[in-house]
Design a protein that fits this description.
The complex is a heterodimer.
Chain A: H1 5-44, H2 49-54, H3 60-70, H4 76-88, H5 102-137, H6 142-156, H7 159-173, H8 189-223, H9 226-234, H10 238-267, H11 270-276, H12 281-290, H13 294-322, H14 324-328
Helix pairs in contact in A: 1-13, 5-6, 5-8, 5-10, 5-13, 6-8, 7-8, 7-11, 8-10, 10-13, 12-13
Chain B: H1 3-14, H2 23-33, E1 47-52, H3 69-78, E2 83-85, E3 91-93, E4 96-101, E5 106-111, H4 125-133, H5 145-148, E6 151-156, E7 161-166, H6 173-177, E8 200-206, E9 210-215, E10 229-234, H7 238-246, E11 252-254, H8 261-266, E12 270-285, H9 295-303, H10 307-315, E13 319-321, H11 345-355, E14 361-367, H12 373-386, E15 390-396, H13 401-404, E16 411-416, H14 422-429, H15 444-454, H16 459-476, E17 479-480, E18 483-492, E19 495-496, H17 505-509, H18 511-514, E20 516-517
Helix pairs in contact in B: 1-2, 9-11, 15-16
The chains are: A mainly alpha, B alpha+beta.
Chain lengths: ~325, ~525
């Protein structure tokens, strides 16, 4: 490390830090806007929590009484303000329907969702990367065509079909895996892995294909650049060109595509959660919409949105760190 | 066939009035008697997992707030009521050992002695008073608050009796008290915690995920229940639910779609039971608006209903043909001598021409919220086209259907769960000033018959009164009830003790008390 490099590095660190702070500021603004939009939209939906809770057979007097108890008779801006003030103080409020703190309801589901997403990511990222690289390097070859066919079909097949067929084969016929993923608190590790196998597989199915396609495109884009030709002329091995030169340059778009796909693993898992009856956050959010449970719905939305923004920030940071040219940009 | 039937048979014979009952009861008795090689006595033990149709964060332990079948089921397992309801829809003594009434207005209930809650505390009259009167508090959010308004007062009378004063005579009080909403809870606890005196004790309750209950060894009905542990989960997706049953992950699956029936029937390890019930999906036409304001319109539509086709195509014959009134043929008060309305295009055309609807496009609102209503509307639309009536099918989302569409349009579909008494059905959905008088019809004769039948002790006379009301509803109320929908459930073959109950899936949700595991 030469002394002259030091100030430049410090300056770039400061820039990076400024960027992170600015991005967090934007993220907070985004979260606010999202919560406002959700609040407005749910208010446009027919019925409210009191009506949904009492159901078809409620009299107007009953509904009015319950509304008062839930605080639903206050004007909408006041309700939103109170919720926001609570959240700023770290209190996500009470779930109207369960009568439990929102944080307690979410604490039960969030770990399940994170576990599912984490395992699905661990399984799908290596697969997607190797498939993408392999097909890019063999562009136009047999391996590439086969992988293209496979990934395109995987993207095209809806996950409910994959999941249902998997259940028919592995649960109903072979009886190897449970058809529903219960995750009881006293489940052993093997139980957990068994019940997660099919949800993870069906989630990965779609995500792997998307990520592999993006990886392939990003790497092919780099392979056409003059520096790759130069490296080839210098006599570098294909492996060294791809891993040492192409991959760092292609990392930005790849990581971005992966962040997009992985954020889908959390909120987009609703279909898989439904088919396998997996107690995750996405089905909780759907419940919250149908029961008009505003505080719970908002909390779920904040989590999904927050995680999405974090993934995007992480993707940008990785891209910048991997590619020095972006640091000064 | 087994002990489960034996008990129900005893219950049937105990209740004198049930002798007048045909239908479901008539099917039960011969089968129970014909059991040649009697299997070993039901034995204690077995852990099962049960898949229900709905589960959400709205799951509740509070019987007053029960709204979904999963709630009823949970409450039947945890709590007991003053009365139970036999498969023939007759009250059977439960926590109330006996009752006495002179005028059907003041009722004195004698409580069963030495019944204890799960926490060891005895069940006292104070608990009964608390459990009934809490429905009148708005904060309870009771689904049966309107029914509880009939209780003028409820008070303890000595150490083991309760006196209930009603605002008017009601012969059905024991049946009303047999509803799970009126479960008996320990007084003075504030929050409902799942402690009751039912056949099972609460082990885990996690809304939207699962409920686990374990056998209550001190249950007041001796020897019951048999199962050691029941885990209740919800699998809203029907295909997943059936797959879970067939793969052995659950031992019972509620709500088999008629289209999936074959899959369950073909599996060697499983059985499917169909229970005829009073559930129906109906087409209601508002009589205070065009076009049903003209009574000919409603009549015309009733002649356009191809009931056998609806029964066969939509329900694969797991249904009972209806006659445009809400009393199903197996109900004790069913009137058998009313002519059956059927598909008759000529009559329909004549009535519709007289109704003056002309070629106006008339939309029907249908939704997945009312079972099979979209298909029913399409069938009706086809037949309407044949007689020159321009019906349209407006398919709307299930979410919010009951608050935004039901009863808000000239023509709409509704769906009604089985109700325990004819009085409740008529009071809730047919009385002129009922909040859910779906068609908005007004019939003074009907209203006075309703009050008269409620205060009548004599079974034959009541049947006659309810019979006349069925005739009035069929002829003048523009609500068409083409079929009553049977309730289909899938079971593991090793579960024994099933009998049909018209009030709900899984034997009116009372399976926990009657079934045992042989495996």
């Amino acid at each position: 490390m030469t002394p002259s490099a030091d100030p430049g590095r410090r300056a770039s660190h400061a820039r990076l830090l400024r960027m992170i702070v600015a991005r967090i500021g934007v993220a907070v603004m985004t979260l606010f806007l999202v919560s406002l939009i959700i609040f407005v939209i749910t208010n446009l939906l027919p019925g409210d929590a009191a009506q949904e809770l009492l159901g078809q057979t409620a009299t107007p007097a009953q509904i009015a009484a319950l509304r008062h108890e839930m605080g639903l008779d206050r004007p909408a801006p006041v309700r939103f303000g109170l919720w926001l003030a609570g959240l700023a103080g770290g209190d996500a409020g009470m779930s109207m329907v369960t009568n439990m703190p929102v944080s307690a309801v979410i604490a039960e589901r969030l770990p399940n969702s994170l576990l599912l997403a984490a395992i699905a990511a661990l399984v799908s990222v290596p697969f997607a990367l190797s498939a993408g690289i392999l097909s890019a390097v063999n562009r136009g070859g047999r391996i590439d065509s086969a992988l293209n066919l496979a990934t395109l079909s995987m993207v095209a097949v809806p996950e409910f079909l994959v999941a249902t067929i998997a259940v028919l084969i592995f649960s109903v016929e072979l009886r190897w895996l449970p058809s529903i993923s219960m995750l009881p608190p006293d489940a052993t590790l093997l139980d957990r892995l068994q019940s997660l196998a099919m949800p993870v597989a069906s989630l990965s199915f779609v995500v792997v294909a998307q990520m592999a396609r993006m990886t392939r495109a990003a790497i092919i884009d780099q392979l056409d650049r003059p520096y790759v030709e130069m490296a080839r002329l210098k006599g570098l091995s294909a492996r060294r060109i791809v891993i040492g030169h192409v991959l760092p340059n292609a990392l930005g778009p790849i990581v971005n595509a992966m962040a997009l796909s992985l954020s889908y693993l959390l909120g987009g898992a609703i279909i898989v959660e439904t088919i396998f009856n997996y107690p995750g956050l996405a089905s909780l959010m759907v419940n919250a919409v149908t029961s008009r449970d505003m505080p719970l719905l908002q909390a779920c939305a904040m989590i999904f949105c927050g995680i999405y923004l974090m993934m995007m920030l992480a993707a940008d940071l990785i891209a910048i760190i991997a590619n020095p040219r972006l640091r000064t940009a | 066939m087994d002990e489960g039937f034996a008990l129900s048979r005893r219950q049937l014979l105990d209740t004198a009035r049930t002798l007048a009952v045909g239908g479901a009861a008539g099917l039960l008795i011969p089968e129970a008697l014909a059991a040649a090689p009697r299997p070993a006595r039901p034995r204690v033990g077995g852990r099962i997992r049960v898949a229900y149709m709905s589960i959400s964060t709205a799951d509740t332990l509070d019987p007053a707030r029960a709204g979904m079948s999963t709630d009823y089921a949970r409450h039947f397992l945890l709590y007991s009521r003053l009365f139970d309801l036999s498969p023939a829809m007759q009250p059977v003594p439960a926590l109330a050992e006996s009752f006495a009434t002179e005028d059907l207005k003041r009722w004195r209930l004698t409580l069963r002695k030495s019944v204890v809650f799960h926490d060891g505390k005895s069940v006292t009259p104070a608990d009964v008073v608390y459990s009934l009167l809490r429905h009148k508090e708005p904060a309870t959010g009771s689904k049966l608050a309107a029914v509880a308004e009939q209780f003028a007062s409820v008070r303890a009378d000595g150490p083991n009796a309760v006196v209930i004063d009603l605002v008017g005579p009601n012969a059905d009080l024991p049946i009303i008290l047999a509803q799970t909403h009126f479960s008996i809870l320990p007084a003075g606890r504030g929050r409902v915690t799942g402690v009751g005196c039912g056949p099972f004790k609460l082990k885990t309750f996690s809304p939207g995920v699962r409920t686990v209950v374990t056998r209550n060894p001190n249950f007041w009905r001796p020897g019951r229940p048999y199962l050691e542990e029941i885990e209740m989960i919800g699998v809203p997706d029907e295909v997943s639910r059936i797959n879970a049953l067939l793969s052995g992950d659950v031992q019972m699956a509620m709500g088999v779609n008629p289209r999936s029936a074959r899959r369950v029937l073909e599996s060697p390890g499983h059985v499917m039971h169909a229970a005829p019930s009073g559930m129906y999906t109906n087409l209601a036409m508002r009589q205070d608006r065009f076009p049903a304001a003209n009574p000919h319109f409603g009549l015309g539509i009733k002649y356009l209903m191809d009931r056998p086709l609806i029964k066969r195509a939509l329900f694969r014959n797991y249904a009972t043909i209806g006659n445009d009134h809400p009393i199903p043929p197996f109900h004790p008060f069913y009137r058998a001598d009313l002519p059956q309305t059927g598909l008759d295009l000529d009559r329909a055309k004549w009535h519709l021409q007289k109704s003056g609807v002309g070629i106006t496009r008339v939309p029907m609102f249908a939704s997945a919220a009312a079972e099979a209503s979209v298909d029913m509307a399409s069938i009706l639309q086809e037949y309407a086209a044949k007689v020159g009536l321009n019906l349209a099918v407006n398919r709307v989302p299930a979410d919010g259907y009951w608050s935004t569409h039901w009863m808000r349009h000239p023509l709409f579909f509704g769906n009604n769960n089985p109700r325990p008494t004819a009085d409740l059905l008529f009071s809730l959905f047919y009385k002129s000033d009922a909040a859910w008088n779906e068609s908005g019809w007004k019939n003074a004769r009907f209203d006075s018959l309703l009050v008269e039948a409620r205060g009548e002790r004599d079974f034959a006379r009541r049947k006659q009164l309810y019979g006349e009301m069925q005739g009035l509803a069929r002829a003048y109320c523009s609500v068409s009830i083409p079929v009553f929908i049977s309730l289909l459930d899938g079971w593991d073959r090793r579960l024994k003790g099933w009998f049909s109950h018209p009030l709900g899936n899984f034997m009116g949700h009372t399976f926990g008390e009657h079934m045992w595991w042989e495996g």
